[in-house]
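The data layer described in this paper is built around a simple, fixed record for each protein. We quote a single record here, exactly as it is kept in our systems:
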Amino acid sequence: MNLKSLVKDTALYGLSSIVGRFLSYLLVPLHTLKIASESGGYGIVSNLYAHTALLLAILTFGMETTLFRFSNKQGEDAGKVYGTTLKMVGGVALLFLAGVLVFLGPISVALGYEAHPEYVGMMAFVVAMDAFQAIMFSRLRQQGKALKFVILKFAYIIPDVLLNLVIFLVLPKLFATCPRLEALYIRENYGVGLIFAANLLCTTCVFFGFGRELGGLRTKFDLPLAKRMLGYTWPLLILSIMGMLNQSADKILFPRLVAGPEGNVQLGIYSAAAKLAMIMTILTQAFRYAYEPIVFNSSRDKDNPETLADGMKFYVLSAMFAWAAIIVYLPVLKYIIGPGYWEGLKVIPIVMMAEIFMGVYFNLSFWYKLTDRTWWGAVMSGAGAVVMIALNIWGVPRFGYMACAWGGFAGYGVSMVLSFILGRKYYPVRYDASAMALFTAMALATVGIYSLLGGICIPVRIAAGTVLLALYALMYLKELKKQH
């Protein structure tokens, strides 16, 4: 395995994710301080973004992975594969957008936003453009253009953060001289609707950065190739939908399971607290961006199982360190969100572990992608989604948002275990189970000892936790040196 390439690309892709997420973190205290928890406004934001995440999975229908697979297949023209993919996803996105705009009224009523159909319209434009751009971003990854990838990601992130700062810090100061501006602000749920407008503007601006990538539209559409790609990708569509349901179904279902305004209030508290667990999503996403091209580009090599084993080990070691570190420093990190949302902090260890399960499942998923048994991915993700949704439907009315946290934990856990069992049959990989077990035990011990010190003052607890984390880091470095 080219570990040096993996580490370098993970760091570069991670720059866009980590720095980008850090900048987005600036919006978490801003939103949670300026949008009162009892207003339910943050719940509205969480609910609509959950819908768009699910729709994005549908509109890209697994074509990102399919692009990688077919671009590296013998006998396939990579340029033709890209152009055909871009036209397919772009066509579907246009049809979706047209359908939403034609039926905007009924759709807004069905989603509970009859008073603000513009929210639904704006997010429809955003998700359609995001789907189209997702293929161009995948092209950059496939060609190893990590720097351009990062620049274009920042071209969205930085303006979006700045616009949100203007919405919540600058505009209110202008109300005294511009009453109409204040009326607009109030009508848009005290700035909530303007968040979606900022998203739409920034997503549109990113298009200007895709010059050569848009040139793929000039490639002749290859119908036989499209049919072969669709035969490979349709299980990935189901896989993507089920995977995204695992991530977003709780936020979609919550307002329907908890009646009245209280549903958005509790959803806002849960979503704000879960933001502190975002480091796991960042780590998994950065790892995926770098790791997926390496695996598919080396899929013809005999040592590919070793590549998968190394990738799994270092993902687990990194993820468990991050899990323990966030719990140790939670007394400080909690100030990222407003005090009105602190009651939801108890979900963080559970949500983070669910994200780790998702990352492990992603690493395990290569066995069915490399053997073209993608329908197994749909089955396993479907099983996890069924478990998660069932726990939400049963548990949310009884236990509130804690059922959302445990639902994700159980759903990803089921998918992960099923993938491991089936992978041993179809694509055996000798994972370094002893190293992963050792470091998992060290992370659990760190959190366990830290928790036992609950009666001690917070600075002393954090200092003790820091010493334990330093020991973990030293052991990690020793493990890393073994690879060279």
The mean pLDDT is 82. The chain has 21 helices and no strands.
